[in-house]
Specification:
Elements: H1 8-14, E1 19-20, E2 29-38, E3 44-45, E4 49-53, H2 68-76, H3 80-87, E5 91-96, E6 106-114, E7 119-127, E8 132-140, E9 147-152, E10 154-156, E11 191-192, E12 214-222
Helix pairs in contact: 2-3
Length: 223
């Protein structure tokens, strides 16, 4: 079970805001403050990853097979592999927030960026789900004293069938406490997630969503 499962109960009950920061500005660059709000009714966001990187670096392409790194995030909430992949391929800074995000709550994560690496990606798993995640996929950060806001949908990694059975879904016991990442195959490509349909243990009444699922605001705060 991932560490994020251990403190999920307090977040859901209290709506606690978690803030992860990296306050050192880079040379010839600046700091981006990224605020994420969970606008679902009953889904929890696992710890959120934010990265600054060069143009053209992407987490995924719609209609194509998810990388193994994305699969691990989408099925189990593990940001470690995809963070390493980004750093090995031109990312300037990668930060993962310090907790899960309840419906209606917000969190702010701060990343450094250089001018030529001023593109931002954000990603997190939706729990409970088989392999749903939300993501900003390499968007241009705003200029000095500017803000950009995005309404972000949920995607399906296509790496696990959406059986909606708790045995195949990670999380705390009051939601699901099953398996996270595995090597089994799913639909085979990344697509827009249809939401919770009620075919297994999950409830389309309390846990379903209609896109978008997250509001993401990016602000340039210093140089």
């Amino acid at each position: 079970m991932k560490n994020w499962c251990r403190n999920i109960t307090g977040v859901v009950l209290t709506g606690t805001m978690f803030i992860a920061t990296n306050a050192m500005a880079s040379d010839n660059g600046g700091i981006y403050k990224v605020t994420v709000t969970n606008i679902t009714q009953g889904e929890i966001f696992t710890p959120i990853m934010v990265a600054s990187h060069k143009r053209g670096l992407k987490l995924f392409d719609l209609g194509y097979t998810a990388s193994n790194e994305l699969e691990q995030l989408a099925e189990g909430g593990d940001t470690g592999p995809i963070s390493t992949m980004l750093m090995n391929n031109g990312a300037y800074d990668v930060v993962t927030g310090e907790g899960v995000l309840a419906p209606g709550a917000s969190t702010t994560i701060t990343v450094n960026a250089k001018n030529e690496r001023g593109y931002i990606s954000v990603a997190s798993m939706l729990v409970p789900s088989n392999d749903a995640f939300f993501a900003l996929n390499g968007v241009r950060g705003p200029g000095k004293n500017k803000t950009r806001t995005f309404m972000v949908p949920a995607y399906d990694a296509g790496s696990e069938i959406n059986d909606e059975l708790c045995v195949n879904i990670p999380g705390p016991p009051f939601l699901c406490a099953g398996e996270g990442y595995n090597l089994a195959s799913g639909e085979g490509y990344v697509y827009i997630h249809p939401g919770i349909l009620g075919g297994g243990d999950l409830s389309p009444v309390s846990q379903a969503w209609k896109n978008p699922v997250a509001k993401v605001t990016i602000t340039f705060v210093s140089n």
